[in-house]
Write a structure and sequence with these properties.
4-stranded antiparallel sheet, 6-stranded mixed sheet, 1 helix, globular
Length: 180
C-alpha cells in the first residue's frame, strides 16, 4: 500500500531529524579528539555546559590530595574550576606527562588562580616549562594564564612547574592539537 503524501512527508522529516542528530552527536564527540583538559584537584569528571569541554581530575598524575585547596571564585562557582593543586616541595619541579603525537603542533595552557585560601605568599614565584624549555615565570600576586605553542618531538611532553620561591600551584591544564 502506498503512503499518502502527508505520511511520506512525516517519514522523510523523521529520517532527516535522525541524520541531523547523528551528525551533531559525531561532531560533539569528535570535536575534543586529542584534547586534554585537567581540572586540578577536581573530585570528578565534569562537562562545562558553556563550552561542552569535558574536564578530568588530575589525580592520575598526582593522587595525593593533601596539596589541594579550594579557591571559591564567584564567577567560576558553577563549575569545578575553583581549586588549585599546591606542590609543597623544597626544590626541583613537578611535571604532568601528557600524551602527544610526534610532529603534531599543540597549544598548551596552564591556569593559575591566586587567592587567600591557597596559603601562598605574595612573593611566591615559579617557572613554567614545556619539556626543558621555560615559557613563563608565574608570580602569585594575581590570577594568570600561561600558554605556548610547540611541536611534539616525541609521543609525550612534560608540562612542569619549577620552584623559584614559595610553593608552585596550578588550577587547570589544557592541551589542544592544532591544525596549522
Amino acid at each position: 500500500m502506498m503512503m499518502e503524501g502527508s505520511d511520506k512527508w512525516i517519514f522523510r522529516l523523521l529520517i532527516e531529524w535522525f541524520i541531523l542528530c547523528f551528525f551533531i552527536l559525531v561532531r560533539s564527540t569528535c570535536g575534543q579528539e586529542g584534547f586534554v583538559s585537567l581540572a586540578c584537584c577536581s573530585d570528578s569528571y565534569f562537562t562545562d555546559p558553556n563550552t561542552t569541554i569535558s574536564w578530568i581530575p588530575d589525580d592520575s598524575w598526582f593522587p595525593n590530595r593533601t596539596g589541594c585547596r579550594n579557591e571559591v571564585i564567584e564567577a567560576l562557582r558553577t563549575y569545578d574550576y575553583g581549586q588549585a593543586r599546591i606542590f609543597n616541595i623544597n626544590s626541583g619541579k613537578r611535571c604532568y606527562n601528557l600524551k602527544t603525537i610526534k610532529e603534531q603542533d599543540y597549544l598548551v595552557r596552564g591556569t593559575f588562580l591566586f587567592g587567600d585560601s591557597l596559603r601562598t605568599t605574595l612573593d611566591t614565584s615559579f617557572d613554567v616549562l614545556v619539556g626543558v624549555t621555560g615559557i613563563s615565570l608565574v608570580n602569585s600576586s594575581e590570577d594568570s594564564e600561561v600558554e605556548g605553542i610547540f611541536r611534539a618531538t616525541k609521543d609525550n611532553i612534560d608540562f612542569c612547574l619549577e620552584k623559584v620561591q614559595g610553593d608552585p600551584y596550578i588550577s587547570k591544564l589544557e592541551l589542544r592539537p592544532l591544525q596549522i
